[in-house]
Fold:
Amino acid sequence: MSLGRDDVEKVANLVALQVDAAQADQMTQQLNNILDLFAQMQAVETDEIAPLAHPLEQVQRLRKDAVTEQNIREKLAAVAPAFDREKGVYLVPQVIE
Amino acid sequence: MSWEVVIGLEIHAQLKTQSKIFSGSSTAYGAEPNTQVSIVDAAMPGALPVLNHGVVDMAIRFGLAIGAEIGQASVFARKNYFYPDLPKGYQISQFDLPIVDKGGKVEIEVDGETKIIRVTRAHLEEDAGKSMHDIVPGMTGIDLNRAGTPLLEIVSEPDMRSAQEAVAYAKKIHELVQYLDICDGNMQEGSFRVDSNVSIRRPGDPLGTRAELKNINSFRFIEQAIEYEIERQIEVLESGGQVVQETRLFNADEGVTRSMRAKEEANDYRYFPDPDLLPVKITDEQIERVRAEMPELADQKRGRFETEYGLSTYDAEFLAASRPMGDYFEAVVSCVGKEHAKLCANWVMGELSKALNQAELEVAQSPVSPQQLGELLQRLVDNTLSGKLAKQVFEAIWQGEGSADEIIEAKGLKQITDSGAIEAMVDEVLANNAQQVEAYRNGQEKLFGYFVGQVMKASKGQANPAQVNELLKAKLKG
Structure:
């Protein structure tokens, strides 16, 4: 499998990255190199091996259902680009549905 | 040639936990914006999610109730998309290994016919925050209180063939999650959200292109929206057009569905296993523990109400329809006594339900507690009150005037059962209405009601009606 410029532009759009033409060409090359590595790995016989969901062979630890967090609105608001103190909301450019 | 309607539902049930799915923030509804947000919910770099034990148990409970396989090695995945109320840029969800796997079924009934609807899967995921487009001019406000609230997304097979079937299925799931005590079912607050996938085809053809109807917050509107959408698709296809796969919103005022502006990119969520979360292993012991704690479900409760309290099928169905209603009824019975279960049922289904409907309240919000109703019914049982007086007292309890006994005392509403006193009133009425007595004895038996009315009036409605009837009959025989 190999990627074309179109694929790279589509992915860039999906992840909301601005990529100019020169960068797109470079990334196409780099991504294709990575895909070549995957192709090598695909060649390995894996029929007998269960898919790996996580590299650590451990099981998820669970927390008790209890409220343990305090209100830290002020701290979080202090590092936000825009916060309306009166309304208590973060502000972002208008999103129209 | 006719069209066949094909409907599948995706239902998001907000799980009734104290804290969020991956953080210890509160999930309480209605708090000041952004006051229930931890560093995990706000997606601060380096903050790691830790799964809530409660949501796992609740999902298992649901899976067991519908007879589905429980995914004993279940994996969380990232669903990637950009929206400002999703701070991480992805939603943690489940993809190919959901916690509630295949095999689940629920039974619905439409027009007296039962039908099995298959549940494809149910998976755990986190809710997004809320975007508010109307509070700051030119900007969108973001409240992250809801971000990270646990959801169980319940996906059905496309097994429904009409809007009625879809609503019957949605109601069944709604009843079930409330019975299981895993979701409060509040559709207004968005705790129970139904998305409908609707398509039509010629019988025997492969599935047609579907439209998804979203954000509909009542069963009545779901039915209307699906009905409208079916008609719209038939019109499109019959006039030679094609149905476009899209999300449509229902406008309840106009009763129509409208295309939501198409997203710029088709859904391409690039799911992959979330490296921040390990696979969840569910042991047989955990499943058995949840099974042992399963609450009584609606169908079992109906059966028990019939055998334990001798109720009719109709009464049992009415009272077991929701868990709060069933609990209310049983609390009344425990006050009044099992031998009076039928009386309790009549009052809960009659006066109480009537008053709740008029006030547009749920049974859990009733201003009359089951204990208060129970005390009132005790006064009916011991003959302190007649049925009519009891209704007056009920009204007063509803208005917050106190307990049954306090009201009876304050208003002097005690029923008169002293036969000497009633006899005196009967005698007086007969003496004052000699003409009518004459007419009655000459065959105008309809006048009996008149005499009863006069005696009741003389007693200010407090005479025991059975005694009045009996005495009048005896006296009029002359």
Summary: Chain B touches chain A through 55 residues (CB under 8 Å). The first strand of chain B starts at residue 4 and ends at 14. Chain B has a mean pLDDT of 92. The radius of gyration of chain B is 30 Å.
